[in-house]
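Many introductory courses stop at the sequence. We go one step further.
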Amino acid sequence: MSPDELVYLGILAASVPVGFLFRYLSPPVKQGAALLLGLTITIGTCGIHTLHSLCTVLGTWLIITFSWRNGPSLSLGWTFLYLLFFRLVTWFGLPSPGPFANAIQLLLTLKMVSLANEVKSYHSEKKKDVSTFSKSPVVGGLSHKPSLYDVISYSYCYIGIMTGPFFRYQTFVDWLEQPDAVSLPGREPCLQRLKMVPVYGALFLFVNSYFPLSYVRTEEFLEHDYFFRFLYMVMVFFVFRMRFYAAWCGAEAGCISAGLGCYPQGALSKPGGGPTVEYSPEPDTAVEYDFKTIQNIDCYNTDFCVKVRHGMRYWNMTVQWWLHHYIYPNAPFRAYALRAGWTMLISAYWHGLHVGYYLSFLTIPLCIAAETAMEASVRVRLGPGGQKVFDWVHWFLKMRAYDYMCMGFVLLKASDTLNYWSSIYFIIHIIALLCIATGRLMKGGRGERKRGSEGEKEVKRDETVREKAE
């Protein structure tokens, strides 16, 4: 492991026991201590580059203070433009920020855009309350306008400051105001989340030692046969998953130990967003809690869900919620694949300027279009047994698609990514295009178009049910 990874590991490991101590603090002390610890981590790891995050925070505070009506669009423009400056600072003769500053800047961008949306919602509902004299129906809406101190406290809260998960400002406020945090569940769910971390970590170290990413860039790699080159991307993505499974499960444990994101199960919380319904338990009724609000990874479903579009929902779940609520609805397209493409483009930009990100993320809409075409033209025609076989094949291709796209994500450079993809003959792109063509050919006749239309409706029904279930 690199020195930076060891620092990440140390911060993650320390956040778990520290979190249990925060349960004993009063709200004002908890807020101040979380801010102080977060600033200590930020300054200690980023040094002078802490000023980048501070500029982002102060700029957002000015926006929500003086132009809250346009806050969502202005904050998105401000934070994303600052990301561009942040990544090109060397053009202006400034020192290049390190990986810690980059991690903090990424998460801060999500927080600031979300905060601006929450503040606008607060003002809008407040105006409705004045005009209708009725209680605001917004679930999880703000009860007060955040001060500058509140904004800074939320921005630099030590919990997940580098690793995530993303959480809304209201989730932060609910955490501060927990009436009896000590009595909330902590030890058992924390251990439950940590139990697989040593396994993920060991698998990461073991497999990475035999399949280092750097080997892909060598001339010797291209001398191996096709099967070896194809298998290599499978192992690279396995290493990639194990690394993030370990990191994100550890980060969730840090949230759980502190009690952040702990809500009654009846609140039907979503990762990133928090409660979706008002929940008031009956007196003297035992209340069960969960930590779905800060759940960032579903390891099992990431590996074993069938579809590409579902796989995204189980990976980096709090960021997916952010994209779904703040980017996807505002896409300048109506078609699902195009809206997904727009969202993936924004996601790629958020991750960085490396071309490999864009090549990978923009392959996702193609894969989604391919699986939609095959579901609507092939799967709908099959019986139960045939659909089961179809789903197994679909799952296998989904995993290979993610293996393939991962290579762009980790190789970063366009030349390295395209060199690798060409070494396996752009196999996933070809399969996706063949699936789309097959889907269209099988819907050629009038009767076929009708059956294909029914298949597309089935796909849409599946999507609707899925979104409601989440």
